[in-house]
Amino acid sequence: xxxLPEGYEEDxxxxxxxxxxxxGAGERGxxxxxxxxxxPPMRIAQGSQFPFLLASPQCPKEGWWSDQPVLELIDxxxxxxxxxxxxxxxxxxxxxxxxxxxFANKAPHxxxxxxxxxxxxxxxxxRNIPHLPVWAFHGDSDTVVPLDESERLIEALQKFGNEQAxxx
Length: 168
Prior knowledge:
Elements: E1 2-3, E2 16-22, H1 39-45, E3 53-55, H2 70-80, E4 83-93, H3 95-106, E5 113-117, E6 135-136, H4 147-159, E7 166-167
Parallel strand pairs: 2-3, 2-4, 4-5, 6-7
Antiparallel strand pairs: 1-3
């Protein structure tokens, strides 16, 4: 799914921020309507407007975000659309939260900031992103992904000097 901001077609000189949203495991497959069940794609489907391009790829059934060409998608979007390469943001929830952590570490200078939602990863890899603004979100009532998945990554980030990292 791709959503262009209001005014994109009229303002041909402007470069726009890009937000990539990675969905959770329940939205995998070939039905793009599933991608609209949560997060920013749901808000767009409900009529919200955002001042950025929103790209929401769909992971194949049985796939994982770490196996998907997300960075190549960003390259293609930059070649095709007027994207401000200094304002590319990554977010995702559950499986997409894990994907957010994964791609932040795989391409640590690619993103202006990341916002993983109820995800996790490998604490020692946080040494790769001490410069990256991270705002993680995770509820303590989550029955799928334990809260400590996010807590331990934020703690590791802070240990590696990332004073901007926070968990809500």
